[in-house]
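Lab meeting notes turned into a lecture example. A postdoc, R.K., suggested we walk through two folding results consecutively so the class can see how the record format repeats. The first protein's sequence and structure tokens come next.
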Amino acid sequence: MKVCIIGAGSSGIAAAQVLQARGIDFDCFEKGSQTGGNWRYENDNGMSSAYRSLHINASRRVMAFKSLPMPEDYPDYPDHFQMAAYFDEVVDRFNLRPRISFNTEVVSVAPAGEGGAEWDVTVAGPDGRSTARYGAVMIANGHHWDARWPEPAFPGADEFEGEQFHAHEYRESDVLRDKRVLVLGIGNSAVDIAVESSRIGTKTFLATRRGAWVLPKYLNGKPIDEVLNPITGLAPIAVQRLVTMPALRVAAVGDPTSYGLPKPDHKLFEAHPTVSSEFLPRLGHGDITAKPNIQAFTGGRTVRFVDGSEEEIDLVVYCTGYKITFPFFDPEVLSAPDNRLPLYHRVVSVERPGLYFIGFIQPLGPIMPIAEAQSEWIADLVTGRAQLPGKAAMRAQISAEEAKQAKRFVASKRHTVEVDFYPYLREIRRARKQVAAPA
């Protein structure tokens, strides 16, 4: 069967490389003019959230594709320019560029018939619109591009006289200069922006309703994921926590409350940790002031927090995450309300045969090796080397995974797609072995 790949970001590139290596015919469509997706700064597809100072927060050796390591002259944590160059190298090394239709947007993916597994894909490109039929569609359009704002909006937000924007719009630090800045959130983008603001803004506040565990990028002079993962990757989560907490004390990180942050309402690794070696020292120096959640905008430029304190603010940056959306699907065909996307092993649509999702997870670790593993499994499925169990069995697995998810991670829209890196890779390997057809 011929396969359609939607997107040429990191997950779409992984899918294309695997399918080509396996001799599977495919078309890959990319809305922009270049590869790299979210890692392409100012990507002309209009979907990138990369800001100029962005660096990866998983080390390059752990994050790289299995098929091609990152260059040895790269730093431990490359910036987005280096990542985009790396993606270009992957695409050119495996001669994938001729297989990608650039400046071509997928505008519709629709079932080709009742009960079948074929799909009609309509694209709009330089030569106009066209529709083709595929036996499978691999969706790799990403889930960090459709900004999610606070729901409901804070009282008085519409009357606030200062500036407000989502982190998705943030590009250059100059917008922070000489301003009293409030950053809402405590994920990786939030702390990056707060650190930048603390250097050039008049005053910087960071507000959060939930505390977070902040991990340094280095332990004993080495990237933290290269130190801890080889030790803890195969261990139960309780053992990982037992090993990591003393390591954080040795690294002089300590308890987040020591820096004025709220006490996390979860144990380490029950939510996506924040990785930064600069954030906590900036808090300790007083360059960033921690605040609880916003209660309301009370007129002019005044913001009141839930502890009753108020501050005059010039700019609010909402680092409140993203929605999982698919603009090319009719909502009756497929949608992900509240970021819930029930898939068999996070990849296979049970109710819509022939739809496969690459990279729609938030791993405690890098996504690129996972996208490769997912693509290998899909290649097994579309070639008949592997088979899926019945729908009832797949639904049961999804229900069991959702129950496990509810116990494992905090309840939030961000964590509906959270997975543990090494256990999930093992899960995909087991799936390939368990359903492999006899040679």
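The second example is placed directly after the first for contrast:
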Amino acid sequence: MNVNTAAKITQQLLANGHEIADTDEEADVIIFNTCCVRNTAEQKILSHIALAKQLKRHNPNLKIAVIGCLSAKRKINGVDILLGTDNAMEVVEKLGVALQPLPPMKEDTVYIDITYGCENYCSYCIVPFVRGKLRIRPREEIIAEFNQVKDTAKDIYLLGQNVNAYPDFPQLLAELAQMPGNFTLHFLSAHPKDFDVETIKVMAQYPKIAHDVHLPMQCGCDKILKLMNRKYTVADYLEKVKLLREYIPDIHITTDIICGFPGETEEDFNETVSVVEKVKFSAAYIFPYSNRTGTAADKMPNQVPFQTRKARATKLVEIMRKMS
């Protein structure tokens, strides 16, 4: 989603005569489009902003803009423009450029937002607090944007924090998959509780839909899934995997996994390892649990020491590497 927003901002500025600077030192404007889902990302952003502020001391005319999740989460001093996720595109106007309708850039890979925000309130996740509640993009806007890119793009991704929370998602997927054009259709990211057999049937039916799905499991232990407020069980998840492989034998399934969530014991972690070995994911994004202030998980008892979280994540990465 941030890649998509950054591309649109860049396109607006380039159309107005701006150029992309070769180095930070040469820039008149530096825009940080931020994510703070994990603490490591937030700390990296803050260090980059600090370096930009040093450049500003030598070049007072330098403009620094911070947009996206971090701006919605905290106040950042010493920057010129601060905007959240909902009004990130306003950075263009604040830099003195009038927003104008522009044709999509002719890229091989194109992203189309279909939902914004999320209201699942998974207990570890800061997204609802920084990106707001679920908002549905009007269907006619999605169709119009799709029509603009379908003849030139090779890969088109439908985007949402919870993409299949879109009303009648399987029908939207089927409608787009029937359009003319030499494209492959993907979607990111699906929530297991909303991912249904109708979506799987549509994926199997239309050749233009990629045989890959990102289905974040997060954990393979029912006790921890409940603490995470994920609203599905391991059995539910495995049933979705079974259906995917029945309908689409060559499906590639990728996932996200959090290691060391509060209350996770070694036995709980080993349950996750067993599920990973059973499912045989094509790839997995594996992270130690990251505390995010304001989330329910941050206040939970039995916080797992960071070194233990890290060790479990490292172990699972090695298991995944051998499988994939």
